[in-house]
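To: structure subgroup
Subject: Chain for Friday's discussion

All,

I'm putting the inputs and outputs inline so they're searchable in the archive.
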Amino acid sequence: MDGRRIQGYLLTGGSQATLRGTCNRTGYPQEGSILIAPNLEAGLYDAIVTAGAVVCGGGGQTGHMQSLCRGRGIPVLRVDEADLAALVGEVTLDLEDGSILVHPDPAAGPDPAPGVGSPTAEHLGAACAVIADFQDIRTVNSCGPNAKRVESFFIREEFLCLAAGLSPFDALDGGPAEVARYGQAVAERLGAFVEELLPDQRLVLRLLDLRSDHAASVTEQSAVAVEPNPELGLHGARWLLGSTPYRDALHTVLDTLRARLGDRAARVHLSVPFLNDADEYAQLRAHLELPADVPLSAFIETPAAVHATPQICAAGASELFVGVKDLVQFYLAADRGNHLVADSYQTRHPAVLDGVRRVVEAGQAAGTPVRVFSLGTDLTHYLDRLPTPDGYMMCTAELVEVLRPEEPAPSGPPCCAGH
């Protein structure tokens, strides 16, 4: 076993070329460890966010938990599930060739990361950072003068719940008192986020979009439906439309924010997930009984929503967020979490880019701001081939690589090693 090298596939990168650590197979958090898991699930949230890296046996580049890792700069490597059993003790991940060295040479050490690519902060427009917690806001806002290019921070409510130890379905099924407590807890978390914002920044909350397979791993008391295809099941706007307790919880969120933040509560905006058309948008706004001064944006992540973009704008959407990761899987019928169809899941496919182009052009015609999600590896491609949106969305770790100014080339003799 000594010196065995296991070849894998890098799903998300990090800031180092190599990374050494101790394997964690428990599913519980161990700071800086290499988490080993067959698949990344919401129930592993605490173990994932404390890990130095993750090795899994399945899943694609843009699954929800993989996206969480990308945003936090946590490398994720996928290997054949049969190889997971060999990952014990100390291992070294080679993030350049996607391999793992088992029982490595103790003298092995990390190498510097490759340099930043050609896109610059100017290309991002009014950028939106995809975050998991308020530490991500601090990370982005520590990027010097370019931090001001980040106009907004986007967070999923389900990620906020995981970080706060909340079980949404249990709370929403627990009666008025539990619903109110849930709303207050979400608001207190959001309030802490707002405290980290620079003066011209805002926070966009994507309303609860907890798929049944993810909900099952974080729900202890409530019944969770078993769906044959949760990705296409009861979640997003269609679930929100059927939940009165969630409406009440959201009102508690808004009331608590106003009480805590006063006028600054207006810096928290809301966004509808997994939307198909303007009728759904209008019905949901009415169902939620939102005050007229609360902006509600729309996520465009299904082909139906792409073709309904002009009508969604006319229905009052305050802005549009193009969820490219979901668009890819729905346009190409390729599950983004299934590595067996990874070759078919193409974020640069002409059909996908045509859909994104339609949204950007429709938003521009209606005067509705549009922000397009991009993986770091796709940004140059999108910049070359798409009309310019109002801004790009990127996960924190990848966005920071674009925002940080390049170090000036040294002049004169090199410094000594001890400087």
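Points worth raising on Friday:
The chain has a mean pLDDT of 90.
The two ends are 41 Å apart (CA to CA).

D.
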